[in-house]
Automatic annotation (TrEMBL):
<feature type="domain" description="TfoX C-terminal">
    <location>
        <begin position="10"/>
        <end position="88"/>
    </location>
</feature>
<dbReference type="Pfam" id="PF04994">
    <property type="entry name" value="TfoX_C"/>
</dbReference>
<dbReference type="InterPro" id="IPR007077">
    <property type="entry name" value="TfoX_C"/>
</dbReference>
<protein>
    <submittedName>
        <fullName>TfoX/Sxy family DNA transformation protein</fullName>
    </submittedName>
</protein>
<dbReference type="InterPro" id="IPR047525">
    <property type="entry name" value="TfoX-like"/>
</dbReference>
Length: 102
């Protein structure tokens, strides 16, 4: 089995990561669960957002899902404080994107 297929299967086996997310993750250089953990939810989401934002709407829940995948927990169970940090990051990222179009 090729390394790419193994990476896809390993990513798909992570909690909160679905079949639509895996090709996107691969396209931004996240080829394994270790990559996702090493880059973290914020950097991974930033890459996805700036690569695909014109094609897809990315929600705060996607960022939560990436964090949950890293922690192997359902994204709805993330601590309130961590969700708030991620929400602030998400809003800052959106604002930065809006500013960059001006």
């Amino acid at each position: 089995m090729s390394a790419k297929i193994q990476g896809m299967q390993a990513l798909l086996a992570m909690r909160n990561i679905g079949p639509k997310s895996v090709p996107q993750l691969l396209e931004v250089g996240i080829t394994s669960p270790d990559d996702l953990r090493n880059y973290g939810a914020e950097e991974t989401f930033r890459r996805l957002y700036f690569r695909f934002c014109d094609e897809h709407k990315f929600s705060l829940n996607y960022l939560y899902a990436l964090e949950g995948a890293n922690l192997d927990c359902d994204w709805r169970w993330l601590p309130v404080e961590r969700k708030q940090e991620l929400k602030e990051y998400f809003n800052g990222l959106k604002q930065g994107k809006k500013d960059s179009k001006v």
